[in-house]
Write a structure and sequence with these properties.
205 residues, single chain, mainly beta, 6-stranded antiparallel β-sheet, two-stranded antiparallel ribbon, extended
């Protein structure tokens, strides 16, 4: 028998606060339509298993057991804007339409349960969709470079393998050397659509 989490009678749903400002316009006798919205969203009280405020013996690895309860703890912020532009024109019996729409969003971690020894590994202040990992500085050209370099706990090294950066200077490449490498999500997404309607038939792309 194993335990995955402890009880928390005060656990609630996460909260979302959102402010939107929108502008809509029709121009050129209704042929051109524009819609745009700026938004600011804050999510707080996101349920996570908080570990930093409890002793380490609340968790064991074999058999894996955890007494860490879920708590309303994490906070994220999202801000950005979206837009939509449409143009339509009647030519004879055919109605032509063209438009584009897109969204730009910036994210930021406001609060996380974290106790990293090195501050560069903190998620707070970084994007919600940040990717962390080892950063490379090229490749090992020969065995001499491997012997002079930091110990990499990634298996047996050979010339041609990636040489990772020792971020904390302890001469060992491990999880403490992971840094933010980028983001897994694109901040800007957009699309274009075209349509032609004749009587009861519509061609849309």
């Amino acid at each position: 028998t194993t335990i995955q989490q402890s009880q928390n009678k005060d656990l609630k749903y996460a909260k979302r606060k959102e402010v939107n400002v929108s502008v809509e316009a029709l121009m050129l006798d209704g042929s051109l339509g524009i819609k745009t919205t700026a938004f600011l969203i804050k999510k707080d009280g996101i349920p996570v298993q908080v570990k930093s405020i409890y002793p380490s013996f609340f968790h064991s690895y074999y058999p894996e057991t955890s007494f860490y309860p879920y708590m309303n703890y994490d906070e994220n912020r999202y801000s950005g804007f979206d837009f939509q532009i449409d143009y339509k024109k009647q030519i004879g019996q055919v109605l032509f339409e063209a438009g584009t729409s897109g969204t730009y969003i910036s994210t930021k971690v406001l609060k996380r349960d974290e106790l990293y020894a090195d501050s560069y590994q903190n998620r707070k202040g970084k994007p919600v969709d940040a990717i962390f990992g080892l950063k490379n500085s090229g490749f090992f050209m020969d065995n001499a470079e491997i012997e002079k370099g930091a110990v990499q706990k990634v298996g047996e090294l050979r010339p041609g393998d990636i040489r990772y950066i020792d971020q904390n200077g302890d001469e060992i490449i491990d999880g403490r050397d992971e840094v933010m490498l980028g983001k897994w999500n694109s901040p800007f997404n957009f699309g274009v659509h075209l349509a032609a309607t004749w009587k009861n038939f519509t061609l849309f792309a």
